[in-house]
Amino acid sequence: MTDRELFDLAVKAAGSSYCKYSGFSVGAALLCDSGEVFTGCNIENGSYPLTNCAERTAIFKAVSEGKRSFEAIAIAGSPDGDFSKPCFPCGACLQVMSEFCGGDFRIVLSDSEYKLDDLMPKRFKL
Ligand code: THU
């Protein structure tokens, strides 16, 4: 699975986005160490804070299926179907990544790749 293929799966997942309020669709594709991929989209709610981001949807799907070792996540977000601009993960999603992933975890965006250490160098951990 190349990073480009993983990103394309994120774009595809954005097609299921339920973004009735913001109009901003996001898709994520999470690559497990096993090679399996779990995808997710953002799911908004009329009670706005209940919205779930695409990244957390993908991570929660994977963890609920018994997966806890992850290599990379691709993220695609756009207000208009053009996914060429990078869509960075929010702080809440970075914190959820931190629960399961080390600093080398790769975050693949439209035009670049980061490590979790780059985007959240100091992380809260119990
Ligand atoms: N969103 C994500 O899905 N992931 C992020 O990392 C940041 C934001 C979603 C939440 C909301 O549905 C929309 O983008 C606009 O904030």
Briefly say what this structure is:
This protein has 126 residues and is of the alpha+beta class. Helices cover 29% and strands 22% of the residues.
Strand content: 15-25%
> What's the helical proportion of residues?
25-40%
CATH superfamily: Cytidine Deaminase, domain 2
- Average pLDDT taken over every residue: 98
Shape: globular
DSSP strand count: 5
Question: What is the CATH-assigned architecture?
Answer: 3-Layer(aba) Sandwich
Bound molecules: tetrahydrodeoxyuridine
**C-alpha-based Rg, rounded:** 13 Å
Biggest sheet: strands side by side, in what order? 2-1-3-4-5
Annotated CATH topology? Cytidine Deaminase, domain 2
Q: Separation of termini?
A: 33 Å
Q: How does this model look, in words?
A:
This protein has helices spanning 3-14, 54-64, 91-100, 116-119; strands spanning 25-32, 37-41, 70-78, 106-108, 113-115. With 126 residues, the protein is an alpha+beta fold. The longest helix has 12 residues, at 3-14. The protein is globular and about 35 Å long. Bound molecules: tetrahydrodeoxyuridine. Tetrahydrodeoxyuridine binds next to α2. Tetrahydrodeoxyuridine (THU) binds next to α2.
